[in-house]
Amino acid sequence: MFLSRYPLFLVLVFQTGLAMLVPSVHALALGEFSESRIFFYAALLLILVASFVGIALQKHTRSALSQRDQLLILFGAFVGLPLLMAIPFQEAAGNLTYFEAYFEMVSSFTTTGASIFADPKAISPTLHLWRAEVAWLGGYVMLVAAAAILAPMHLGGYEVLGAMKGTRDLGRLTQSEVREGANARIGRWSQKIFPVYFGLTMILWFGLFVTGQDVTVALSHAMSILSTSGISPLGGLENTPTGVLPEFLMFVFLFAGLSRMTLLPDHPQGQGLWHDREFRIGVAVIILVPTLILARHWLAALDAADGSLVGAIWGGVFTTLSFLTTTGFVSQNWSMASAWSGHGTMEIVLIGLAIVGGGVATTAGGVKLLRVYALFGQGMREMDRLVYPSAIGQGGIRGRRITREGTHIAWIFFMLFAVTLAVVMTGLSLLGVGFEQAAILAVSALSTTGPLATYAGVEPILIGDLEPLAQAILMATMVIGRLEALALIALFNPDFWRG
Asked: Does residue 250 sit within a domain?
């Protein structure tokens, strides 16, 4: 197998070079020959360097990567690959520093989607396509890493899943399976996930193109939906001239961010999508949040004949799912839903949805629905104990195991998430960022929901106006939010560095 013969990081560099051929061809088709040459030369350079170095190190490649090596490679991918991705981006943009280009690539590769460009017209369509493609690649890397690296280590949400499930799942592997043949395992999962991930992207691209979107805009939106990055060449769906029909298509594909069963080809036998706890919680949130938003004026507007009520409902439902999956696209009718709600603090709803996040082993960020489920279940049990202190706990062995292991780990992660938010907010505040803006930026970066910087405040936050140190803090927070604090803390475990 190809992945088992070459160093894994060099394979990622090689694939990055191949990915650069897409914007090169796109720029060539638009007649932008300078941009096309920049991406082609960068692609050729990465492919040749990765190939030659890989051949030289082929005999020294280990097939049995340790857990430490796997986490280091994953961390190095999200920190190191954007360094290479930023080279053609900075050269093609022209008026951009390398640090700013690196920020754009880190934001894209972590599927955050935040940008230093306040005006989307400041860069060319080819560069927008490159941002969306980098985010799409980052989402694919996370899907493979979740199944092949994080699940065997019981990280990335699988620490709760392993404690909750009595049947064999992705997170229940033997220790020999964890340590032996890591490259081969990653290769197998790559081959399983790519056809599903690529196929759904192409289907959505064709659907958006048929509904009237430009071919480049449709492709960028399709990759952004599957990767939950929220990157748009138009600056958002509210600027799309083709109406709400494309939103209906995107809405269907956004469900991929609610459950691992939508994109991962393997899941426990005999369990359908509706039986997944995360999916059911996500559907409940999609129904409950818009209902609460519109409840204030619901009865008084039932006789409305202008269709604004229907538009407000759709705007609330679509935007709720979008921010719950940490995509960050806002419906064209969201302003209508906000007006119908009668509340002046609708931004808090978007922030709360982004913090909750999507499903385990998806491209979504946030705390994750599975952890929220574990904490909610523990809260209900504690309330029962207050009312019936002598009662015997329900749920049998599985239920007691959820309380003892899964909930404890979920609470630890939630505390780490909150502490990280506090630290990032403090760092930004010390650099002169206002409290409200610091809170929004911290949640945006840690939950990998970049569009929060645009929609969660009274006025859009211009990231390009921040100091370089503040932007560096946000980049570090994006990486932490993408890999999650538990995975990074595992790198500091002394057991990982012994032997």
From this structure: yes
Length of the chain: 499
What gap in Å lies between CA 480 and CA 396, rounded to an integer?
36
pLDDT band of 171, cuts 50, 70, 90: very low
Cα separation, 447 vs 326, in Å, equals 7
> What pLDDT, in 10s, does the model give residues 322-348?
999 999 999 988 888 877 766 666 788
Alpha helices in 211-345 (DSSP H): 215-227, 245-254, 277-294, 308-324, 334-341
The pLDDT score that the predictor gives to residue 352 is 93
Q: Are 326 and 234 in contact (CB under 8 A)?
A: no
H or E segment and range at residue 53: helix 33-57
Residue 8 in any domain: the answer is yes
What is the spatial distance between Cα 26 and Cα 21, in angstroms, rounded to a whole number? Answer: 9
Into how many domains does the chain fold?
1
Q: Which domain holds residue 234?
A: 2-257
CA atoms within 13 A on the CB side of 231: 36
In a domain? residue 94? yes
370 domain-assigned: no
Share of the chain above pLDDT 70, in %: 84
Angle, CA 43 vertex, CA 110 and CA 69 arms, to 5°: 50
Query: Which own/partner contact pairs does 395-398 have at CB distance under 8 Å and 24+ positions apart?
Result: 397/166, 398/164, 398/166
| pLDDT band at residue 178 under the 50/70/90 scheme | very low
Q: What is the pTM of this model?
A: 0.91
The torsion of the CA quartet 25, 74, 355, 170, rounded to 10 degrees, works out to 110
The token pair at 155 is 């990280």
DSSP string, 241-268: TT-SHHHHHHHHHHGGGT-TTTT-S---
Residue 384, both tokens: 């029962």
How confident is the model over 458-486, as pLDDT tens digits? 889 999 999 999 999 999 999 999 998 77
Distance CA 496, CA 7 (A): 20
